[in-house]
Amino acid sequence: MAGAAGGSSAQEKRATASRLKAALSLSADESEAAAGELRSLLETVLSPPSGGGAGGGESVSEALAWCRCLLAGGEPWDSFVQAVRAYDPATLCGLVWTANFVAYRCRTCGISPCMSLCAECFHQGEHAGHDYNMFRSQAGGACDCGDGNVMREAGFCKRHRIKSSSEVPSVPKDLLIMSELVLPQFIFCLIQYLREGYDEPVLDVPSEKDLHKVLQILESHISFLEDLTKMGGAMRSVLTQVLTNQQFYKDLSSGGAENACAKKSHEKYLVALKGSGLTFPEDKAACGVQEQAAGGASSSVVQGFADATPASGQGDSSDEEDQDGGQGVGKRKRVKLSSSTKDQSIMDVLKHKCFLEELLFWTIKYEFPQKMVTFLLNMLPDQDYKIAFTKTFVQHYAFIMKTLKKSHESDTMSNRIVHISVQLFSNEELARQVTEECQLLDIMVTVLLYMMESCLIKSELQDEENSLHVVVNCGEALLKNNTYWPLVSDFINILSHQSVAKKFLEDHRLLVTWMNFVSFFQGMNLNKRELNEHVEFESQTYYAAFAAELEACAQPMWGLLSHCKVRETQEYTRNVVRYCLEALQDWFDAINFVDEPTPNQVTFHLPLHRYYAMFLSKAVKRQELDLDSLLPDQEMLMKLMVHPLQIQASLSEIHSNMWVRNGLQIKGQAMTYVQSHFCNSMIDPDIYLLQVCASRLDPDYFISSVFERFKVVDLLTMASQHQNTVLDSEHERSMLEGALTFLVILLSLRLHLGMTDDEILRAEMVAQLCMNDRTHSSLLDLIPENPNPKSGIIPGSLSFESMLSAVADFKAPVFEPGGSMQQGMYTPKAEVWDKEFDPVMVILRTVYRRDVQSAMDRYTAFLKQSGKVHGNPWPPYKKRTHLHPSYKGLMRLLHCKTLHIVLFTLLYKILMDHQNLSEHVLCMVLYLIELGLENSSEQEPDEEDSMGGQERCHDSWFPGNNLVSNMRHFINYVRVRVPETAPEVKREPPASTSADGSAASQNPRRPKGLQRENSGTAQVFSLVAERRKKFQEIINRNTTEANQAVRPKTSMKWSAPGATPQLTTAILEIKESILSLLVKLHHKLSGKQNSYYPPWLDDMETLIQCENPKYLHGDGMTAVERILLKAALQSRLNKRIIEEICRKVTPPVPPKKISPAEKKILDKEERRQKARERQQKLLAEFASRQKSFMETAMDVESPDAEIAMEIATAEQHVPEAVYDCVICGQSGPSTEERPAGLVVLLQASSVLGQCRNTTEPKKLPTSEKEQIYPWDTCAAVYEARLATLQHFFKDSSCLQSVSIGWEGGVYVQTCGHTLHIDCHKSYMESLRNDQVLQGFSVDKGEFTCPLCRQFANSVLPCYPGNSVERSLWQCHSNKNMQDLIKEVEDLQEQLGTFPVSISSETNLSKEMESVMKDIKSTTQKKYTDYSKTPGSPDNDFLFMYSVARTNLELELVHRGGNLCLGGASTAGKRSCLHQLFHVLAMHMRLYSIDSAYNPWKKLTQLMENDETLQTCSEEQPEVPVLYRDASSLLLIQILTMPQPLRKEHFTCIIKVLFTLLYIQALVALSVKCSAEDRMTWMNSGALKKSMSNAKKSWEVLLSHVISELYNGKIYEQEETEDLAMDSTSAWCPHSIETYLQQFCLPFLRITSLLQHHLFGAELPSCQEDEEFTVLANCLGLLPPSFQSSEFSSASCLDWPVPAFDIISQWCSELVSFAGKHPTQVKILLIQEAKWDLPRLLQLPENYNTIFQYYHRKSCSVCSKVPKDPAVCLVCGTFVCLKGLCCKQQSYCECVLHSQNCGAGTGIFLLINASVIIIIRGHRFCLWGSVYLDAHGEEDRDLRRGKPLYICKERYKVLEQQWVSHTFDHINKRWGPHYNGL
């Protein structure tokens, strides 16, 4: 039997299978026997090939064939599949996809943020109006349709609306009986393959190749399993049973099997298992955590972790520290893991109990092969499997982490892991179950901790030698490549479930471990300021650091916070805060921190501080906890504030360029810290923490700390000079600004201090909109969202949309004339600028400093526009929302003497013009004063007391702490410490100053004895000493000698004696108060004496109205007035004092004694100012010049330009045209020797060929049914016509009967500027040597016009002589028609004789030849070669007159297809047709037409012997005259005449050709009407033949034509075919007249244009219905005696020879042709041309229609689905962009198509990007998108995936640029494509 198994045929297999199946359902014994037989059969079939996979392929397919047969029990496989599918209770979709699949996510229907749907389920569900988007899957995923845990049922599609199980019948027992027996062995076989193939990698280098080889062999096995899962629920449950049944596993894989092969594989399996526990020797060594020898039982390791330390695991015994320190890792907190045995599983080697577990194990070992992942996920719709698999996954979690860390392809592997885990952990029910049963949280936290432990280094923060703190090393691959991402993302995912998060927050042990984990990130990526050299290597580790803090610390924090929203959750917050503070305390101990941060280092990463801050904020805002109950003691608060404050000061240093030697990356860090994705996890918590500290610490201490940290203490002196020991003077100003700005932000920001969520959203939105107008998506991106995805996009009741419409107006997308397209933007409403613009918020949120300026500029513009302010306004002061009561203490900062001293000093310095102060400083000072006035709470004591108070307080600057009363306190004298060189030293102190301190001394709070005479500090009041003292008081509360205790180490740098120039003490007389300084400032700002006058003296009202609108906006004076008014409002005393100050006429500010150094600076400033003014003036002048140039030169439709043109036209006697050369600037005529030329762009164009003869625009196909056929385009019709003519007639004559150039015609356009050709050559030479990268190729002759920079590639020589030949036709000649015809003929005969000048080689003729070459080479050869004999001169002849035709036709298209607008069109303004004609004519005249074949003769003479001519010639006949195209004949006639042409000859030619055209119209008409109509017209016309004007009546002529043509077989066939066409409607005379006019119009239009260009004739404008008359008149076709009443088109005829004779002659040619080829006669008749204007394809309204059809469509050439599909918008062809598959001779498909479809111009829509790309020749550019979302924005690359709708205006613009050939001029960003598109 087994032998038969090998090569048995399909027939035998089926027989065996059905026999076994039958046996199985019999009695017990028989079925037992059958099962045994089956088992041995399978063993034989499935045994892994011993040859290590040689010949594997065949045996594998054989084995699979057996399995299929056995499963189906002898049935055909397909019918078995159908049968099983019938029992599928498919309520879940579960479709699994891999990376790059396009799926949908609907936020309206999703419960979990990870919810996703496949396209099919999405389109079948009802999601209209929902918030959904399309996305490209990054890691892969599965469709959640039908899963009520993840999405709401309303969103399910039709197929997956819940079916009740009752509908699905139960599975018959015998259907799957074979499967239950076959599958265990099949899966075991798979596992054996995996065991066999795995070799333990040597030295940790997995042999990639071997793994891949094994996987390749298994490909078909796994595919087979996948097919099984797709059979539906019934088969899945069998598979589940097989995979999870422990008995099966035991029986098959215990390794006790007989055969050696199985034994070997089992041994391999055991080896592979060894490394699966967490404690793996190599790992341990790396971690440096060698608790015991690794060989010991791993259970003791857990004990070791838990209990090896004394009792609590917190008391770190010293000996242990040393032992750890030896390993160079520093002190490690013992990680307390649960010591219970159930946690064993994390540490231990894995034990497998079922197939599923081992399968997952190997999936991990093989680094998650895609196929296996897909199979494991395809099973998930089975509920039992889902639970079993999730538990297995958790069991292997540590092993996954280990494998991931070692993997070389960690990115792919990460994606695959997440692909699985997101399906498991997004389900709350499942996550909760696993958390309870498998300790999911313990496992995750432990695994994360272990992972990070492998890359720890010693922290260098603070005390470098003795630091015991360890941090992660951001340079390690683990962090750099985000390898930790899958684990963290799983953790965040499970924390989003409330039940899981609560378990975490209740578990104290877990919280301790987690804080321990977070502390690894505390202080990472430390920056040390480079003071000497520029750093050699700029490290980019900061990316890793910021990402790690955001993902590993902040996101889990937000996840936890989202569950701490209500009072009931207070306990959780208390837990977190408690352990957070403990961790912080440990951290301070570990880094040896006392009270001073080490200078010149900063870390932006303080996650522990931020955890603490955010939980505090939540506790107060949401859980109504008492803030003080959560705060530590004062000492801890002082420590807490140090590092966040250090960051704020460093930000200021970085922006002051003090860190410039650290390279750009430090700026990058400063920006990232405040950037929108990070700010609410970084800067916001930091500032909030500082606000909390400030509200609880002593305000004087806090303020002095700030100024000390910002290093500007020394600057705060009354003296005009000072010595700063810690800061260079060039940085002082910006650091002072930084310090004040920080204080303003600290005191006015309310984000966490009482603002509601809606107010926060509004403030954020306003700040962003004030900086710049924003698109909807960039605004969404810039508003800091809560990073935890569960919480919805933004908290608060008001949605983003409604808030947006409240604060902003939408500006629809606009098109600027330059063609650059704007997106739809939102811009702040006027009332927002008026009331809500908040500079503080803007400063906080700007990443680039220029954005602050931008916001101010926009604010200024608004005020000027609304007429509110005219000067330069200052940032407005915005009222703040009220403070939450818990934080009231913050306002004490504004009422502390230290701050008041600073404010007073700065006001004084600004008034005295000391250096290093700026308007910004003043602005911030005033802001702080105003904040203080707004927030003064305590009522003043009685006025008298405080009056007396002034005398009482000798020891201090100010009497009390309240700003309101301190403002009026006069300070008389101040003692300052100044360098001996300072001007103050010279003055003698006034007599009244005595040593008893009646002058307010500089250092009030200490006995004078303590003043160090020569110390380096020269402040107003020694901030540092002050602060030091405070600090000591607090720390040594119980010791008495607080003043003596000075910490040695840190205070060293303040008292280095003699380190600086000698300082001496001087006493300044001040005699000012803050109020008097303010009044004087007002005078200073206004530049007038006594400019301040208290407003309440005139109008008492001002004191009552608190909000006076006139003070809302304005400059510094307004701010001062507002402050004085507020001060007066708050106290009567202040009011009185202000009045007094104003009464004393203030003496002028003393003139400054300017030191030479200062003078230098001032001069410099003044010079700069002057230079700036000069520059402004120059720029303005330049701009006006440019504007005037633009108006004259460009298409700017200004009426003046047109009038100018008309005047030019009117000046009749122009002697000779004069040209200005734009290079050398000389003007003069163009001469033979030195010709001038027009700058032109030659380009091949197929636009004309795209005209169709329907007015209905073609649609882009979006389904299989729709197709576009190219044969109704103009190009196709003309090409077919030429081919047919060539088939029957003589080649040379054919090539003169039509025009080419509908496709690949050469279009010539100019910008209108001229240059000398020799100048141009030297210009090109200079461009060639120019190394700058240009957007064009100089070698191809491309350049930009030197004047207007328009793109060009050739120069068209100007023919010497008058610009337009007017002089030649002024006199109306009275010659008759016959003479003129003779003259024309004679002129054509003289072809051979040229005007002398041209025959001799002159520069001009050389140039004309070279430009002709250019014109030829512009288009491809296939568009110029139409003759049967290659290289025949007829070809060139045809090509040349067709160039003229192409240009005329295109100009007609640009004018809208008719000439009704007359001359007022832009298209004609800069035409170069006149010059082009000369070039063409010169070349045409090189070819002589044999006079016998000259069409002119046929048109104007009756041939006597025409019969003889045709019979005797053997060759093909010439083309009958009636088949020739009149416009082509016209161009041939004119171009072969000697130039300049005379107007009378021109008119003569037109008249002759019109007669031909008219007869062609009649012939076409006669064919169109029915037989009876024809008879009627023939007879009625014949009667009128004798009338006098018979030859000018169309009836007579028509009857003559019909009767002539009846001779041939012309009318015979049609009775059968054409009858159905137009014959139903009879032709009335009126409709015939209209038909004839329409037939002749195209010719008249071309002719009029030609006349306009050659002779400068005006083009009159008219109504559409009278276009024919007007043009005929303009061309001189109408007889002079013409009356308009009885107009008929025939009256324009002017017959050169007897009409009826010549008609008969023309018709006879047709008759004789009809005799030979009766079928072709009518096809070749010239039909009425009804071409519509060229259009691009019409696109559907919704982009999704295009996307869904094309993004999966396979390419017709290579029949693969292209990676970058594109579609041509001109013809609808589907192409692969950049696809190598469709490459032909090094040209990729798009480039090739652009040449075939558009002669080098292609317009493609990139399906996956929604963007349009233009290919023009060898260059390409991204044009933009014509599909915009609901907010008027493009979505390039479909990144946002929002629904997109067509923007008709944009599409119009695109079409316009295509038709007018202006892509090159309007689009600026071109690049070469090297044929690779």
Folded structure, characterized:
With 1877 residues, the chain is of the alpha+beta class. α22 (440-453) runs parallel beside α26, α35 (729-748) packs parallel to α43 (919-934) and α43 runs parallel beside α50 (1116-1130). The protein is flat and about 130 Å long. It contains 76 helices and 28 strands. The strands form eleven sheets. Strands 22-21-23-24-25-28 form a six-stranded antiparallel beta sheet. A three-stranded antiparallel beta sheet has the order 3-2-4.
Lay out the secondary structure.
Elements: H1 2-7, H2 10-24, H3 28-46, H4 56-72, H5 77-85, E1 96-97, E2 102-106, E3 117-118, H6 119-124, E4 132-136, E5 141-142, H7 177-197, H8 208-229, H9 233-244, H10 246-253, H11 260-273, H12 281-287, H13 298-307, H14 318-325, H15 344-347, H16 355-365, H17 370-378, H18 383-395, H19 397-406, H20 410-425, H21 428-438, H22 440-453, E6 456-458, E7 470-472, H23 477-480, H24 485-495, H25 498-506, H26 508-519, E8 527-528, H27 541-561, H28 570-590, E9 601-602, H29 607-621, H30 627-630, H31 634-655, H32 664-674, H33 683-696, H34 699-709, H35 729-748, H36 757-771, H37 776-782, H38 800-807, E10 808-811, E11 825-828, H39 830-836, H40 839-845, H41 849-865, H42 897-911, H43 919-934, H44 943-952, H45 963-966, E12 971-979, H46 1023-1035, H47 1048-1051, E13 1063-1072, H48 1074-1086, H49 1101-1104, H50 1116-1130, H51 1132-1143, H52 1156-1193, H53 1199-1210, E14 1219-1220, E15 1227-1228, E16 1236-1245, H54 1274-1288, H55 1291-1294, E17 1305-1316, H56 1317-1329, E18 1343-1344, E19 1351-1352, E20 1354-1357, H57 1377-1389, H58 1396-1399, H59 1403-1418, H60 1433-1454, ...
Antiparallel strand pairs: 1-5, 2-3, 2-4, 6-7, 8-9, 10-11, 12-13, 14-15, 16-17, 16-20, 18-19, 21-22, 21-23, 23-24, 24-25, 25-28, 26-27
